[in-house]
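BUG-444 | component: ligand-complex export | severity: low

The export step for FE3-S4 cluster jobs runs without errors, but we want the raw record kept on the ticket for reference. Input record follows.
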Amino acid sequence: MNAAKTFHVTTFGCQMNEHDSERMKGMLESLGYAEAPEQEGADLILFNTCSIREKADSRFIAYLQQAAAHKRRAPGTVIGVGGCWAQSVKHDVFRQFPYVDVAFGPGQVHKLAEFLTTDSLTAQGFFEFEGFTGHLPVKRARDFQGWVQISAGCNMKCSYCIVPATRGRQVDRPLDELVAEVRDMVENGVLEVTLLGQNVNAYGRAVRGGERSSFAALLHELDALDGLRRIRYTSPHPQDMKEDVVLAHAQLESVCPHMHLPLQTGSSRVLKAMRRTYDRARFLDRVALIREHNPDIALTTDIIVGFPGETEADFAETLEVCEEVGFDGAFTFIYSPRRDTEAAELVEDFVDHEIAVARMERLVEVIQRRAAERAQRFVGRTLDVLVEGSSRTDAARLRGRSGHGKVVNFSGLAEPGEIVPVQITAATSQTLAGEMSLLARALV
Ligand code: SAH
Ligand code: SF4
Ligand code: F3S
């Protein structure tokens, strides 16, 4: 083994990919590779790709072309492409980009070492989900925060979405394995875990190698672990957001008062075309149940504008629901047709880009205004903040997150990984500002 070899990983896409990349880095280090600060000069240039929207594809291809240029100067460079884009184009990777040596899908991360150590490069692994990455070595970005993949794949059939094609059918990990993994993380200093899955609250029905379980049961078991201070998760599907999970938020101290509940659109007609399996009334009913038991919870969401056939009246319903719910934040996207998805066939109904952009602007105005209004409830309160580092805009201040998932910039003295009380003095739609409360700190 050559100890001097170096690698560089560029990650696109969601937290699932971030998590897989940490595993890739951990594996490579255990093979004797060292992480290089940049692509140029690395012996192995890896990409963990995303294909959720067209922009994700084009950004990645620009990066890949840079890697190709490095390889022309240093022909020994190995270029590897993993993740959802690779899975969605499969063997075409090598046809379109002949300088790629290794390609693999998201279910094959655990085989990276094997791909790299084979004699014949142009190794590839696709199609089947074969294994979780939970047992692989890991290189965490922060010692005190960790991701836990509780399931892979997705059994929903949202008509715009490429994920079921890239990540396959849902497979869940056994409950006891997850609890053991989190216990081990906590023993190694992790205070906050984020449970990852495409539809986390469907967890437990498709357990491979274990008994059936439920997402609420998992939350209860994890909450019982000493030393685990915060449990987050993403994303639940409104269809499966049942009372047991809602009550877990109210009852379990470590489950954070934040829920990311993707709405997608406020129009029941469009929800149907999206195959989201709930309508406007049912979504609002879920929100009412959540807030009945958790009045202070932060609710965030995902919204797509310009889905094929979306009319001005449909869009007005999205605005209405956003006004009514008052989300604490939202990720907003313009619909992007994806290969091999049902909605991509509806070419005659595509919404003009200018119209979609204009709708997006109106939506963002409502989201931000309501989020800013909602955030005022924190002013004057003291919130527990997990310190992540220094503030991005003012290095003399600290930055962290409250249980609600809000970024808090504050003055005080504390180390990353500490949970400290911060008195909130101001709030915008995106961030809170405050001062560390020394008196409250002396009391904790
Ligand atoms: N499984 C998660 C979402 C994964 S993708 C869930 O259902 O919550 C994250 C978000 O990307 C989705 O919620 C959706 O809002 C957006 N998205 C997915 N496909 C898209 C597409 N083709 N065009 C625009 N946005 C899309
Ligand atoms: Fe895609 Fe829908 Fe599954 Fe989310 S629930 S990953 S949007 S198919
Ligand atoms: Fe995630 Fe992108 Fe795949 S959002 S699941 S990396 S398509």
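Assignee comment: Attached the raw record above. The chain is about 35% helix and 20% strand.
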